[in-house]
Specification:
α9 (256-270) crosses α12. The chain has 448 residues and is an alpha/beta fold. The strands form 4 sheets. Strands 1, 2, 3, 4, 5, 6, 7 and 8 form an 8-stranded mixed sheet that branches. The longest helix has 19 residues, at 429-447. The protein has helices spanning 21-35, 50-63, 76-85, 118-126, 149-158, 163-169, 186-192, 220-229, 256-270, 284-291, 303-313, 336-350, 354-360, 378-388, 429-447; strands at residues 5-7, 10-15, 18-19, 39-44, 67-73, 90-94, 103-109, 143-145, 172-176, 196-200, 233-237, 244-247, 275-278, 296-299, 317-320, 324-326, 365-372, 393-395, 400-403, 408-413, 419-426.
């Protein structure tokens, strides 16, 4: 059974078991037909299989008659930014994000430098079987290596904040890039912000020394290192640098939900406006927005959905609770470089330690659990829960979210396996776990 997963954010699979040259040619051909004539920007997160994927991809796109601009190993947001900067018809980042070494993926962008919408994705997939026509020798595209892509991106990120103020603080920062694309940009980027940078896992090898998802259980060594070095904070990015996770001066997780909360608090203190996050993101966002008299809108999970709603309500800041900050002042995509400068500017302005800032943010705890359904229909189970709580505040844009005074809960069925994911948030860890156990029991009862 192939591991290939096709979704609105692209195609992902185990290299040699799902993601192989035949698959890459097939999807890249359909993508080229969707984009039409013009330039396509490509980048890679530096993982080991990147060259195999890249060369197959370049050959296919050139054979379809598209000019390819290769910006090399770089963050995903760098590709997003350069699609619009260079007037391209599309862009592809070769990255399986936080998946381990054996995975890779094609992240597919539209001509606006954003992830394809569900509608665009549907149009592309309809061409999948008929996209096997290629150009003649005199109609092929050309390949350009473009070395300015990273510079374009990070120079414009620096323009978003008061660099001199940040420099004056001389922050001592532990930087963990899990040997991915961040290793090619983040050390210089932080030095340009006047930081003393202590690198860990910043070798440009593309071999991840630990599980690459930046969650606390994978960051124990980095947390210890912050304490040993007496650093002000640690900045941790995933392999393709769209997620930012922080560790405080005490060597404790800042908590990834707090990344977007802090960025929203900072941006709203300067520019009042709407905020968009997904339905699984912390309620702390509502708290910091209401202090500024601003509104929060919630979209279905997924970057493309957040961006779509951000545009509809003209949001000044948005993102996801996994450490993804979207600041439309620069571009519509999750960007750890942007999250980094907003965080450092906030720290510099407040003149406080990151651990103090964390203590001042609204306190919530999220618990997550997945429920195996076997042969039971997930839609039926979710429908029954909805009926049971029909008098509460309900949102059905993406599964079922129910808001109570003391907590909220979000039920989502998986598209790939017979499970329901359940997320609950309350004021304490104990309460969140009690609520999630309660809903778990209710679903078990409904399954009988």
């Amino acid at each position: 059974m192939s591991t290939l997963m096709v979704s609105v954010s692209g195609i992902r699979g185990l290299v040699g078991d799902g993601l192989d040259p035949n698959t890459i040619v097939k999807y890249a051909s359909a993508y080229a037909d969707f984009c039409g004539a013009g330039k396509i920007v490509i980048g890679s997160d530096g993982r080991i299989s990147g060259n195999m994927v890249k060369h197959t991809l370049i050959g296919t796109l050139i054979a379809k008659g598209n000019d390819v601009i290769d910006i090399g190993i770089c963050p995903t947001p760098t590709v997003l930014y350069n699609v619009t900067k260079l007037g391209a018809v599309g862009g592809i980042q070769i990255s399986a994000s936080h998946n381990p070494n054996e995975w890779n993926a094609l992240k597919l962008l539209n001509s606006k430098g954003e992830f394809m919408t569900p509608e665009e994705n549907k149009i592309m997939l309809e061409n999948l079987e008929s996209s096997n026509k290629f150009k003649r020798w005199n109609e092929l595209g050309i390949l350009t290596q473009y070395d300015e892509g990273l510079k374009n991106h990070y120079e414009n990120v620096l323009k978003l904040v008061d660099v001199d103020l940040i420099k004056s603080k001389k922050f001592k920062v532990v930087l963990d890039c899990v040997n991915g694309a961040g290793s090619f940009i983040m050390p210089k980027f932080l030095k340009d912000l006047g930081c003393e940078v202590i690198n860990i896992n910043c070798e440009q090898t593309g071999i991840f020394p630990r599980l690459p998802e930046p969650i606390p259980e994978n960051l124990t060594e980095t947390m210890e290192f912050v304490k040993e070095q007496n650093a002000d904070l640690a900045i941790v990015v995933d392999p393709d640098v769209d997620r930012l996770v922080l560790i405080t001066d005490k060597g404790e997780p800042f908590i990834e939900e707090n990344t977007i909360t802090l960025s929203a608090k900072h941006v709203l203190s300067k520019t009042k406006g709407n905020v968009v996050v997904n339905l699984s993101t912390t309620r702390a966002i509502d708290d910091v927005a209401s202090v500024q008299g601003c509104k929060v809108f919630r979209s279905p999970v997924g970057e493309a959905n957040v961006v779509k709603l951000m545009k509809e309500v003209n949001a000044v800041i948005g993102g996801e609770g996994s450490g993804g900050v979207i600041y439309p002042e620069l571009h519509y995509g999750r960007d750890a470089l942007v999250g980094t400068v907003l965080t450092l500017e906030h720290l510099a302005e407040q003149n406080k330690k990151l651990s103090q800032i964390k203590d001042e943010l609204p306190k919530y705890f999220i618990a997550k659990k997945k429920i195996e359904l076997g042969n039971v229909n997930p839609d039926k189970v979710v429908e029954q829960i909805k009926e049971k709580y029909k008098n509460e505040k309900i949102n059905t844009d993406d599964g079922l979210r129910i808001d109570f005074e003391s907590h909220w809960v979000h039920f989502r069925k998986s598209n790939t396996e017979p499970i329901i994911r359940c997320i609950a948030e309350a004021k304490t860890e104990e309460e969140a776990n009690l609520f999630i156990d309660k809903y778990f029991s209710e679903i078990k009862e409904l399954m009988k």
